[in-house]
Amino acid sequence: MFKSWRRKRVLAHESIPDSLWRGALAASPALGRLTDADLARLRALALLFLHEKRFEPARGFAVTDEMRVRVALLASLPILNLGLDSYATFTSIVLYPDEFLVRDREVVDEDGVVHTGDDLLSGEAWQQGPVLLAWSEVEQSGKGEGYNVVVHELAHKIDMLNGEVDGVPPLHADMRLPEWTAAFDEAYESLLDQLERDEEPWLDPYGAEDPAEFFAVCSEMFFDVPERFAEEYPRVYEQLASFYRQRPVPAR
After folding, report:
1. Options 3.40.50.300, 3.30.1360.10, 1.20.58.760, 1.10.472.150; which CATH number does 1-153 get?
2. What is the CA radius of gyration of the chain?
3. pLDDT band at 1 (very low <50, low <70, confident <90, very high)
């Protein structure tokens, strides 16, 4: 009750300045498909996101209001019809100026062997913690070119809502797990087969890392290049349209 009252109060008494909002939209041409009604709801969600999430600079980075609004806009896109409670498991966005190095990361391969090494990352979502983003990569996101690091990392956060990071978020009551699994498994195996044949796939090869990364990469494509994604992966597109409650490519 209190959370609902607080959100209504924020929406009634505050707003994102027009200049900041217009600048964020101009930098994210992939959002040009949204209707005026969609944009109004997106702006309201972004405002609440800014109130409820804390931005933490890394390495002394100077985080500006323009940066906060841009991140909030892109972060609000996947939850446009899901609501801000989809992001209830984190409170902080850590913003780096550029890609950042994570040292001594342990990775377990298919044979159970543990490998340790350093990773250069553009973003990361911690299961019990914040979302980390490189601003240089945020700047390249949402341009209709098939890349959106903000959507990618927040798709991971949504995936984590049921405890498992496995590419299967908590599905709605009107969705069927076997249909989701069949669509994603077929597409994932197809990507693996392409890479094994040394073919250059249309989808980002990073999606072949595991099913969780495949879900996050597909989410990027769904929002950034939906027409091409619907052509390449129609069954996965339909599952994501049902899950995100959005249909960026109108049904024919």
Report:
1. 1.10.472.150
2. 18
3. confident
Residue 128's pLDDT band (boundaries 50, 70, 90)?
confident
Q: Structurally, what CATH architecture does the domain formed by 166-252 represent?
A: 3-Layer(aba) Sandwich (3.40)
Those residues whose C-beta lies under 8 Å from the C-beta of residue 225, and which sit 6 or more positions away, are: 30, 144, 145, 146
Is residue 248 within 8 A of residue 229, CB to CB? The reply is: no
CA distance 7 to 231: 39
pLDDT single digits (tens) 141-157: 999 999 999 999 999 99
Share of the chain above pLDDT 70, in %: 93
Query: Would you say residue 111 has pLDDT above 60?
Result: no
- Judged by DSSP in three states, 54 sits in strand
Determine the Cα–Cα distance for residues 31 and 33; give it in Å rounded to an integer.
5
Q: Domain extents for the chain? A: 1-153, 166-252
